[in-house]
Amino acid sequence: AIRKLIHTGDPYLFTERFFQDILARLSGPGRLRFIVQPTVAILLGVRSGIKDAREGFPPFLWALAFHGKHRRKLFGSAFASIQDVVAIAIILEVISQFLIFHEVRPGAALLVGPVLITLPYVLARALSNRIMRRRAPIASSAHIS
């Protein structure tokens, strides 16, 4: 991939071909992962969001943006929750690229794989926390300041 970049000057990422290849991935081998991987990420996000609500933490995205003292803990727990799933997503992306295109684009694998996991995870974690906090009042809100 690096040799091809040097010879052609084509960065591939975010080019017209990159987006066409994304569409080809949806119909090629491994297309089921576009359903399974986000579903697993959503389940992990809901589990983490419920845990956050029980511990009195604000919703994930809100805490990342406005509660600096919680950022490190939240990033750490998010990384611990999804690290294996993200690694599997990257490996599956490499395999599907090889099966569909007979070449591997590492940059695309490092982008597409994690996006399939992190975006649904983050949204599910934040929403499940908000839902849990509205359903049952939190006994201790000492973490929220």
Describe what this molecule looks like in 3D.
It is built from six helices and no strands. The protein has helices at residues 2-8, 16-27, 33-54, 60-66, 68-101, 106-135. The longest helix has 34 residues, at 68-101. It is elongated. It starts with a helix and ends in a 10-residue tail after the last helix.
Task: Record keyword descriptors for this entry.
145 residues; 77% helix; elongated; 6 helices
Present the secondary structure layout:
Blueprint: H1 2-8, H2 16-27, H3 33-54, H4 60-66, H5 68-101, H6 106-135
Helix pairs in contact: 3-5, 3-6, 4-5, 5-6
For the biggest sheet, the summary is:
none
Structural class comes to mainly alpha
Mean model confidence by pLDDT: 86
N-to-C order of helices and strands: HHHHHH
- Strand proportion, as a percent range, falls in under 5%
Total DSSP helices: 6
Q: Rg from C-alpha positions?
A: 19 Å
Number of strands: 0
Q: Which range best describes the helical content: under 10%, 10-25%, 25-40%, 40-55%, 55-70% or over 70%?
A: over 70%
Distance between the terminal alpha carbons, to the nearest Å? 48 Å
Shape, principal axes of CA atoms: elongated
Catalogue the unreliable spans. none
Entry summary:
The chain has six helices and no strands. The protein has helices at residues 2-8, 16-27, 33-54, 60-66, 68-101, 106-135.
